[in-house]
Amino acid sequence: MPHATQSPPTALTIALIGQPNVGKSSLINALSGSHLKVGNFSGVTIEKTQAVFTYQNTRITIIDLPGSYSLNHYSPEEKITKDFLESRQYDIVLNVLDSTNISRNLALSGQIMDLGVKMVLGLNMIDEARDEQISINHELLSEILGVPCVPISASTGENLSLLLDTLISYAQKPLCAPKRIYNDKIEKSIAKVELFITQQSFYELQTYPHASSPLSARQLAILLIKQDSALYAYLHDKPCYHEILQCVSSARQELSLASGEKNIARIFHHDAIAYAQGAAKETITYPKSILQKTKDMDSLLLHKVFGIPIFLLLMFALFEMTFYVGGFFKDYIELGFENLAEVIREHIVVKDFASLLCDGVIGGVGTILAFLPLIIVLYFGIALLESSGYMARIAFLLDGFFHKFGLHGKSFIPLIAGFGCSVPAYMATRTLKNRNERLITLFVIGFMSCSARLPIYVLFVGAFFDPKYAGVVLFGIYLFGAIAALLLAKLLKLSVFAGYEEPFVMEMPKYRMPNWRVMWFSVWSKVVMFLKKAAGFIFLGSVLIWFASQYPKSPTLAKEYEAKRAALVDSRQFRALKEEQQQEKLWYLHNEYNENFLRQTYSGRIGEALRPIFAPLDFDWRLSISLVAGFAAKEVVVSTLGVLYALGDDVSEESTTLQQNLRDSISFPTAIAFIVFVMFYIPCFAATITFGREAGGIKFVAYLFVFTTIVAYCFALLGYYCALFGYRFFIG
Asked: Angle 282-287-290 (CA atoms, 0-180°, nearest 5)?
């Protein structure tokens, strides 16, 4: 391979590109020694990993582009990758290939060659190829393609120094066009445009993209026929634009007629696949038994009878681990912050400041950090499934069924995660590449009842149903939510997200042992992203909700409470009571004050204002206020009802006194409507902010609020009248 014969450049920017599962993450970790910076590509939530390190006096920056099967704009990842490559904000492209599956990977390489950029191929996992007795003539492959090909192994470090030497050396040389050959029909169109450009000698094209390294007439002809957006943007206001456009349009029309295909991009894509297969056939020799191990495992894991049960068992184990292991640490984190808040509260004299610091600030931080254990455990499991090669098989198993509802097979992961907690569930949608499918999944995750809703269900089911039917009713609630989520996903697909369906690309990678270093970085990067982007909003929201539940103050109420308390304490009947009975009297009086105080706060006023809206559901002001409080966290609904029914805020879902008060205060149809509304209305504040970050901005939060509110109200109204007529029919 070539080595530097002159002083190396002081800086080198490398665009790292490859199809999914080729080991890009492992390679960038191995090259940089984990000196990674994680962020987002501009305007989207897709992660951008960048590594900066020094090698032989050269400061190297590697920009890891999203894994893409092609440059056809079929997914946000492909669009970002193509746009970045066309921007030419780099010195050289490092295209990573899986040495055990070069034929498929070379299709992307062929499309990159069309761009006229400097490129080096890194044949990764060469050690696995040798173990599988795959023979690769990389020197012949380099000769056929016209670009350097370096066999490497990110896991063992094989030839990584040679790869860096090759990149530095090749980046210094003038651009040499790769030996990319097309079919006769495409070559004829290229020749026509190339001849026109050569004859006209347009000055504008002689300096593109840079005067120091202009593209050849052939490379320009290819880009013009493929309608390269960067080149067209450059030419749009140039005098030669209309002449060139006329010639190119004619060539494209002739190519379309000759190929019998209107889509020019598809013509080039099919040719790239054929080119890749031809190059691989000339340079690679496979043994007959190469895929036998994978086929043996697939015969079990993809079995038409046992495949789904095995998958469900693995998912059950993953979520059990998530919500038992993660929940264990979550409880201790919450308890720790509660104790910290109490200690600080005791040492602060000013009550309002103590409440702000303890209930708002510390409570908000505690809310943020309490989610971390669940996110860490869940994403560790997802990373394990992805790196082992099983995730693609999950999508294969479920895609057919989910596709009927406008979802992807991978939607199953976030939907199931939604039964535990919506925050990690929303983040889990990052595995979905199709934006429409991802948005549909994001919008229906909230209908999978999270664990925070369980106390509400237990409270109302225990109050209004016979204990022997409680388990069946609870199961029915979760089942109804899941069925409704699928039906509403279909509705979204047919209405809001209707239109062109992007082609589904399914890859079945080989099973392999996970790279623990890459898995650690995957989990760590998601934790950092969560803390950086969601934490600030959750913190701010927690303080705002605290403010709404504490203000405005009512001196009149406070004076009335103090007067009543003083009168009670001074009364002869009170002094005659035992200490426990005295504390009970004071407790009821204090909770009566809390009820009246909450009713006049901003949250209470909102609840009162909502009463006319909820009148058809027969919700009183207490139920309305508890729904408003539930936006902060669904767990708050039970404690809010406890305060409103003058039982205190430390009641649980198993409180028989609260259940009795509910039975005495509201009807059975109202209880059914309340349960249904809680099932479908907007998730907690933390989850809603996470949804906004994953969906793409505040406008999507507004869409979610409108969508979930309409769905919740309609289903609750339906549930109310079904329960009303059913109750009258059976009970009389």
From this structure: 115
Instruction: Calculate the average pLDDT of the chain.
Output: 81
User: What residues contact residue 335 under an 8 Å CB cut-off, 6+ apart?
Assistant: none
Question: Which pLDDT belongs to residue 12?
Answer: 93
pLDDT tens for 217-237 read 888 899 899 888 888 888 888
The pLDDT of residue 38: 46
Instruction: Please give, one letter per residue, the 3-state secondary structure of 176-205.
Output: CCCCCCCCHHHHHHHHHHHHHHHHHCCCHH
Strand blocks (E) in 232-340: 284-285
- C-alpha 449/C-alpha 715 separation (Å) is 15
What burial letters (b/e) apply to 2-40, b meaning 16+ CB within 10 Å? eebeeebeeebbbbbbbbbbbbbbbbbbbbbeeebebee
**How many Å separate Cα 287 from the centre of its chain?**
39
Pairing of strands 119-124, 92-98: parallel
> Which long-range contacts link 70-76 to residues 24+ away (Cβ below 8 Å)?
70/107, 70/108, 70/111, 70/269, 70/272, 71/108, 71/111, 71/112, 72/265, 72/269, 74/434, 74/502, 74/503, 74/505, 75/433, 75/434, 75/435, 75/502, 76/44, 76/46, 76/433, 76/435
Tell which wins on pLDDT, 333 or 251. Answer: 251
Element (H, E) at 120: strand 119-124
Residue-wise pLDDT for 568-607, tens only, equals 888 888 888 888 888 888 878 887 887 788 778 887 788 7
Phi-psi label, residue 17: left if phi above 0, alpha if psi -120 to 50, beta otherwise: beta
Contact 232, 205 (CB under 8 A): no
Question: Of 174, 172, 71, which Cα lies nearest the Cα of 113?
Answer: 71
| Residues 236 and 205 sit within 8 Å (Cβ to Cβ) | no
- 429 Cβ contact list (under 8 Å, min separation 6): 411, 414, 438, 441, 442, 445, 694
Please name every residue paired with 121 in a beta bridge, in sequence order, or none if there are none: 95, 149
Phi-psi region of 50 (alpha: psi -120 to 50; beta: other; left: phi over 0): beta
Q: Are strands 36-40 and 47-55 parallel, antiparallel or unpaired?
A: antiparallel
What number of residues does the chain have? 732
Q: CA angle at residue 283 from 269 to 386, to 5 degrees?
A: 60
Pair 412, 394: CB distance under 8 Å: yes
Residue 260 clears pLDDT 90, i.e. is over it: no
Q: Is residue 364 scored above 70 in pLDDT?
A: no
- 192-222 confidence digits (pLDDT tens): 999 999 888 888 888 887 766 788 888 889 9
Alpha-carbon distance values, 674 to 484, 611, 660, 666, 678 (Å): 17, 13, 16, 10, 6
Residues 176, 119: contact at Cβ < 8 Å? no
The amino acid sitting at 113 is M
Structure tokens given for 350: 């000013």
The angle formed by the CA atoms of residues 56, 120 and 383, to the nearest 5 degrees, is 90
Structure confidence by residue, pLDDT tens digits, 515-526:
777 677 777 876
What's residue 211's pLDDT?
A: 62
pLDDT computed for residue 176 by the predictor? 78
Beta pairing partners, 92: 14
